[in-house]
Amino acid sequence: MAPQTQRQWVVRKANEIDSLEFQPEAPVPSIGDREVLVRFHAASLNFRDVLIAKGQYPFPTRDGLVPVADGAGVVAAVGSRVSRFQVGDRVAGLFHQDHIAGPFDASYLRSSLGGYVDGTLRQYGAFHEQGLVRVPANLSLTEAASLPCAALTAWSALYPDEGRSVRAGDTVLTEGSGGVSTFAIMFAKAAGAKVIATTSSDEKGQRLKELGADYVLNYKENPNWGTLAKRLTPNQDGVDLVVEVGGPASARQALTALKTMGIISMVGSVASFAAGEDMSQAPTFLETVGRGTVRGVAVGSRRQFEEMNRAIEANDLHPVLDTNFFKLEHALEAYDYLWDQKHVGKVIVQIIEE
Questions:
Q1: Angle separating helix axes 302-315 and 179-190, nearest 10 degrees
Q2: Which SS3 state, helix, strand or coil, does residue 246 take?
Q3: CB 119 within 8 A of CB 111
Q4: What pLDDT does 80 receive?
Q5: What is the pLDDT of residue 274?
Q6: pLDDT of residue 290
Q7: How many CA atoms lie within 13 A of 104 on its CB side?
Q8: Kindly report the CA angle at 318 between 150 and 326, in degrees rounded to 5?
Q9: Quick one: angle between helices 179-190 and 202-211, nearest 10?
Q10: Alpha carbons within 13 A on the beta-carbon side of 150
Q11: Residue 226 has what DSSP assignment?
Q12: Strand, helix or coil at 43?
């Protein structure tokens, strides 16, 4: 039996990280006949979570929201008509709860965990059974907590529902050492691709090489890293696919590195937000694209999540977790740590120690 109260965080009048409010005795949600109660073991932060707290998130959100999309736990109770899960199953939530399969629809934005629907920065959460997936058997729950946003986004960037997917012999360019980029390296290498990665320090670069990156470029030492990346490709033709997470500045370099008819998968704008760059100029670099494809990535569907989990199990892949774990009551420290870009891999908030 679940307790009646729980510890959780909510976002109040989002305008800064300290708009997060800790609630030591919030009610545990009840469940309907098609809902599942999940006892969370861990949550994992994304840059998007900081933007929501700061009031800078460009998509629908609401006051009083339980933040954070990434998390994993164990089914504690099921409604009377639930057929997909039973008590004891290890599960994670789907980022867009309504995106089951097929192309993304704008209506799904109001079903995003930690954005419009209460997320994972709490001990218990209630979800419709269609909005959950079983996590890979080879991962701990702490590892699985990193999958719903960053991992699935990386997977969708390389294996879209429509369009060309990564394949053996390709050269893939990744940027930085955050969650999406580290997952993209692992998925690309599992597909038999070569990987060129960028990062800001030699220490982080060494970690990316350990993950399988064939080449690492320090973008602080080499601001024109796009040209260097292109020189590292066969016949200096350019990279086949870019997992673009840095925004307009890095996208211009990615375009320089791109092969004719190559693909740029646009994931986010981490570097631009962190640097305070004017995002209104984001579309301008697209005007120069005439020799390749730029596609947006909106995390991914439940079908893609399940495909990714099968690949994680088959290849025994394990996510990169930052070495600093944070307790639930210290979540504000985790937010600051992520915002300051001190992390390598996923920043974990431990709710139950494994």
A1: 60
A2: strand
A3: no
A4: 97
A5: 41
A6: 54
A7: 20
A8: 65
A9: 30
A10: 33
A11: H
A12: strand
